[in-house]
């Protein structure tokens, strides 16, 4: 008997993933509580499932939502929980500014008076800045720009911009429409990010995929797959353009109706290419810092709801985070989607979402499901998983673990670190014992790198590596560890050595790249160093990675044409070369 699934959504990227695993469709015959192992349900079904006090799910059953997932995915509740968490941090002696992850936001109608006060303050501040700069808003009393959104709607429905308090008088307590007085649909009003980072002059936001398998303890995976959603029209902060939704709102449901909408790429750009573009335009360190900050935004938002969301062991969640980046490279959380769209408009979109779902299933698949699944249908990264390490997988396809607060994982990491420290101590002992022969050892390591690698960067001994093959080869590592242990034993019985100078091998790898269109190329460099015998290998790896990165970086030149619609995707080639040196380090 195989894994049984039922699904409320008629989405090919879901159903094809279930069928490729050899799982059995029981959607038609299974009831809500029995006869299935995985239920990919809509939010209405989840609400009904957990509302039934008689429902008792079996230990092996999984559903794709937590009971009160809306605490994070309803815009008004997300704001409430983040503000509550800020107050908690302040009470605990922390800095509430560390939770500065959303624009200034109020929930209407209940926060109307607070919003009106902040609106006037921001407008006065902006007018003073304009006077000092010798400019004018030109809006007849217009102030700062704010964006209004209904709390529980999606696809850009009901969103509009305002810059005058009179434009939302109907949302005040005294003039509230009957539908809103009953609490049917609150609105959130947020300070508009009017200095967005632009690419090709156009505004964009990022869709980031996140999987949460537990809130207590918190366990979170983030995918490197995702995409940027672009507006059709180049951005302008002019008051006269406030109603131009093709300039201000990135939702595909809106942009697809624009005259400039490109059906070939759907106004989307893969997240990996966006990162390469940012590395090229802002630098590698700035791009790395941005994506680290995005991870921080995600974790802070989840911790804000951690004590509110019911942590049902049968539940997991695939979230779609919408992030906008301003021109200082600060990420802002716009909203979190509990059911990110699985509709596809292009072939690239289909491939990306199919992979995201496949990786999500790999994350949430319990070990006991593997025994009842056709081995040939299992994804490659699940066929040889060590059962003991199964709960601690840090990389699952495109997803990487960004948080695991479980005690078991902390013990697992502590054991890993202890083993690494022991290996490092053995290597250092071996290095100290044979420091006089360090140049020869480095040459031998370089030769090993040459034997294991293929092209890319040369070590100081003349070896080469294509980006880490030698460094991560299990056989080579085992041999090195054995040699280090033997050397350490010899060092223990030898007389204390006199002070010596340790040697460090450095290798510098650089590379060039050119797009298939022959437009601007770029170079990337990488340098690696290490102690003695390990140094040449580290240098060789660094040299190779420098050349490989150069080819990747250069793809941006073709991808940059994306916004003009002249190419459907990136293309590029790259190669790298290197030079190395052996130099003394400080005396021991």
UniProtKB/TrEMBL annotation:
GO terms for molecular function: ATP binding; tubulin binding; tubulin-glutamic acid ligase activity. Transmembrane segments: none annotated. It comes from the Eukaryota. Residues 571-580 have a biased composition (Gly residues). Its main location: cytoplasm. Keywords: ATP-binding, Cell projection, Cilium, Cytoplasm, Cytoskeleton, Ligase, Microtubule, Nucleotide-binding. Belongs to the tubulin polyglutamylase family. This is Tubulin--tyrosine ligase-like protein 9. It comes from Pleodorina starrii. The gene is PLEST002836.
């Amino acid at each position: 008997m195989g894994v049984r699934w039922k699904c409320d959504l008629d989405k090919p990227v879901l159903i094809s993933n279930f069928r490729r695993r050899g799982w059995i469709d029981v959607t038609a015959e299974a009831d809500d509580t029995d006869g299935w192992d995985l239920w990919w349900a809509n939010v209405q079904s989840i609400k009904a499932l957990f509302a039934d006090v008689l429902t008792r799910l079996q230990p092996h059953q999984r559903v794709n939502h937590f009971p009160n997932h809306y605490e994070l995915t309803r815009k008004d509740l997300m704001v409430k929980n983040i503000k509550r968490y800020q107050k908690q941090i302040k009470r605990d002696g922390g800095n509430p500014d560390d939770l500065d992850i959303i624009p200034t936001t109020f929930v209407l109608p209940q926060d109307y008076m607070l919003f009106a006060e902040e609106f006037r303050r921001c407008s006065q501040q902006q007018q003073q800045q304009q006077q000092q700069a010798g400019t004018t808003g030109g809006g007849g009393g217009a102030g700062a720009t704010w964006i209004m959104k209904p709390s529980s709607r999606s696809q850009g429905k009901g969103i509009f911009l305002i810059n005058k308090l009179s434009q939302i008088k109907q949302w005040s307590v005294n003039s509230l429409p009957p539908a809103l007085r009953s609490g049917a649909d609150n609105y959130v009003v947020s300070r508009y990010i009017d200095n967005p980072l632009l690419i090709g002059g156009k505004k964009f936001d990022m869709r980031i995929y996140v999987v949460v398998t537990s809130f207590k303890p918190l366990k979170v995976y983030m995918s490197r797959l995702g995409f940027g959603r672009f507006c059709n029209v180049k951005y302008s902060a002019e008051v006269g353009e406030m109603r131009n939704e093709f300039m201000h709102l990135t939702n595909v449901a809106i942009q697809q109706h624009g005259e400039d909408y490109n059906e070939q790429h759907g106004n989307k750009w893969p997240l990996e290419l966006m990162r390469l573009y940012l590395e090229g335009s802002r630098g590698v360190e700035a791009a790395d810092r941005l994506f680290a900050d995005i991870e921080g935004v995600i974790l802070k938002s989840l911790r804000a709801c951690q004590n509110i969301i019911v942590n049902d062991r049968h539940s997991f969640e695939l979230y779609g985070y919408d992030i906008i980046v301003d021109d200082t490279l600060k990420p802002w959380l716009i909203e979190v989607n509990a059911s990110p769209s699985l509709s596809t408009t292009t072939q690239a979109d289909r491939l990306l979402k199919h992979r995201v779902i496949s990786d999500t299933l790999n994350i949430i698949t319990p070990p006991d499901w593997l025994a009842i699944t056709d081995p040939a249908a299992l994804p490659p990264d699940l066929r040889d998983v060590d059962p003991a390490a199964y709960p601690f997988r840090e990389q699952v396809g495109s997803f990487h673990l960004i948080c695991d607060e479980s005690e078991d994982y902390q013990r697992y990491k502590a054991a890993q670190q202890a083993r690494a420290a022991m290996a490092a101590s053995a290597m250092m002992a071996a290095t100290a014992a044979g420091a006089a022969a360090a140049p020869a050892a480095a040459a031998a390591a370089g030769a090993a790198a040459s034997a294991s690698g293929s092209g890319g960067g040369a070590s100081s001994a003349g070896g080469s590596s294509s980006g880490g093959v030698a460094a991560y080869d299990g056989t080579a590592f085992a041999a090195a560890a054995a040699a280090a242990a033997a050397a350490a034993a010899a060092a223990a019985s030898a007389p204390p050595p006199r002070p010596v100078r340790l040697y460090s091998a450095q290798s510098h790898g650089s590379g060039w790249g050119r797009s298939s269109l022959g437009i601007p190329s770029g170079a990337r460099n990488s340098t690696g160093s290490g102690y003695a015998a390990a140094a040449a290998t580290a240098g060789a790896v660094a040299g190779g990675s420098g050349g490989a990165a150069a080819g990747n970086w250069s793809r941006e030149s073709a991808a940059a044409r994306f916004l003009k619609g002249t190419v459907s995707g990136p293309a590029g080639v790259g190669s790298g070369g290197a030079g190395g040196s052996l130099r003394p380090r400080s005396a021991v």
